Amino acid sequence: MATSAGVAPGFDLGTRRADEERVTEFLERVITDGGAAAAGLCTSLGERLGLYTAMAGAGPLSSTRLATRTGLVERYVREWLAAQVAGEYVTYTPGTDTYELPDAHAAVLADPGSPHYAAGFFTMLQALYATEDALLDAFRSGAGVGWADHDPALFAGTAKFFRPGYTAALVPEWLAALDGVVDKMERGARVADVGCGFGYSTMLMARAFPASRFHGFDFHRPSVRTARRIAAEQGLTDRVRFDVANAQDFPGKNFDLITFFDCLHDTGDPGGALRCAEQALDDDGVCLIVEPNGSPDVRENATPVGRALTAASVAVCLPTALAQHGPQALGNHAGEEAMRTIAAGAGLRHWKLVAENPVNRVYAVGR
């Protein structure tokens, strides 16, 4: 029986309208996210094609002039610029039909030497989307997707993404926060960098402390080859060596410092890696562990950084650990307490948070 207003008894029209408003609001968010995902391809293209670099500090440019500066086809460049204006990465002046990359944006998109440079994240997207079918199978079978199974864009993008932060903080902040370590490295220390990837972290330390000797280890042979090439190009082979080794059985003893930069959570056996480190440390040696600044409380990751971290954990971190068939697959937001417990089980009971930023938490760990 309908009411005089034509609405069935018990039906709350106000509630329905509120629900529709919430649906519309969420739909707009999803479309925004979809647009950002598609725009990420344009950002990656801009970085790889040198478009951002060509625009940095150049002032207003027409699409024709930008195409000439980059050696690219103007029609594609003009379409790319339209997408950049839509995303508010680039500004447009209709009177002169010119485009400009603001200096603040150039620091993020065009200057690998800037601590704010983030374009490497978009290089990784090629690899992340390419593994979707493999991840479908992994979700159904419980198997992993190994690091080496990804497109090389992942390795290059990961190195490119983390390098600016390491450049800004590793020597002046993180190492400086370790009691007595800088003095020891200035005199001459033995350092192992476990999970070194392309070796940027290793070489940053090597340039700062020429009296010390550095040994980078990674289980991914192509990354080790790249690290060796870069070390040779930078003239650091007198103090840096790179070898293929797993985190659980890397060789060497009596290291004054052993580092794990954003990699310990990617191992299938983080406890085994830390046991190996404990056995390889000198009597007063210390481990520097850098981990993503994610939280085991999923609600606390509802931030831009937390969202990026947890998505990366689904696509890369957890599958990589599962592919190693170890006893633990942590993901990248297990949190400090879980890592501290694992370290204590490996004989590393001295644990101290020494630095933190929106992306990383940095720990000094020893016996």
Write the layout of secondary structure elements.
Blueprint: H1 13-48, H2 51-55, H3 63-70, H4 74-86, E1 91-93, E2 98-100, H5 103-109, H6 120-130, H7 132-141, H8 152-174, H9 181-187, E3 190-194, H10 200-208, E4 213-218, H11 221-233, E5 240-244, E6 255-261, H12 270-280, E7 281-292, H13 304-323, H14 336-345, E8 350-356, E9 360-366
Parallel strand pairs: 3-4, 3-6, 4-5, 6-7
Antiparallel strand pairs: 1-2, 7-9, 8-9
Describe, in plain words, how this protein is organized in 3D.
The protein has 367 residues and is α/β, with parallel strands linked by helices. Helices cover 50% and strands 15% of the residues. The chain has 14 helices and nine strands. It has helices at 13-48, 51-55, 63-70, 74-86, 103-109, 120-130, 132-141, 152-174, 181-187, 200-208, 221-233, 270-280, 304-323, 336-345; strands at 91-93, 98-100, 190-194, 213-218, 240-244, 255-261, 281-292, 350-356, 360-366. The strands form two sheets. A seven-stranded mixed sheet has the order 5-4-3-6-7-9-8, sandwiched between helices. A two-stranded antiparallel sheet has the order 1-2. A hairpin with a 3-residue loop joins strand 8 (350-356) and strand 9 (360-366). The model has no long low-confidence stretch (mean pLDDT 94).
Q: Can you summarize this structure?
A:
By secondary structure, the chain is α/β, with parallel strands linked by helices. Helix content is 50%, strand content 15%. It has a 7-stranded mixed beta sheet with strand order 5-4-3-6-7-9-8, with helices on both faces.
